Amino acid sequence: MTDKLVGLLEARGLTVFAIIDHSGEAAKVGLSLRRTKVVIFGSPAAGTPVMEASPLAALDLPLRVLIWDDEGVTTVSYTDPAVLAARHGLSAELLSARLEGIGPLVDALVSR
Asked: Helices 2-11 and 102-111, interaxial angle, to 10°?
């Protein structure tokens, strides 16, 4: 599913900054962790105005999607943009133009 997400992101012109393979890193030190990966992505054109409005938003940006195994079911999770807006005091106008696309993106990922 990670490859599908990366394909969707690239098709939309978004930058994939990193893929963190938590389960793979755990295995390297002899530990077991359910399949767990985080894809970090975004657009500097979209994220920069958010961080200008609230510098602490840089703690949550770029956006990220968690893909993990929940007892044999692949689950996709992310922080809702409304939560990010509340956490950082972002206006609806600023938010809607820049962060709300994550929901439809994840919907497209899981509907394939």
From this structure: 130
Domain-embedded: residue 73: yes
Closest CA relative to residue 92, chosen from 23, 84, 37: 84
Here the CATH number for the domain that contains residue 79 is 3.30.310.70
As a whole number, mean pLDDT of residues 52-60 equals 94
The answer to whether the beta carbons of residues 66 and 38 sit under 8 Å apart is: yes
Q: Give the range of the structural domain holding residue 77, as residue numbers without chain letter.
A: 2-106
In a domain, 36, yes or no: yes
What is the average pLDDT across 86-101? Answer: 83
Instruction: Please report the DSSP string for 30-78 in residue order.
Output: T----SEEEEEEE-HHHHHHHHHH-GGGGGT-SEEEEEEEETTEEEEE-
Other CB atoms within 10 Å distance of the CB of residue 47: 19
**pLDDT reading at 55 higher than 90:** yes
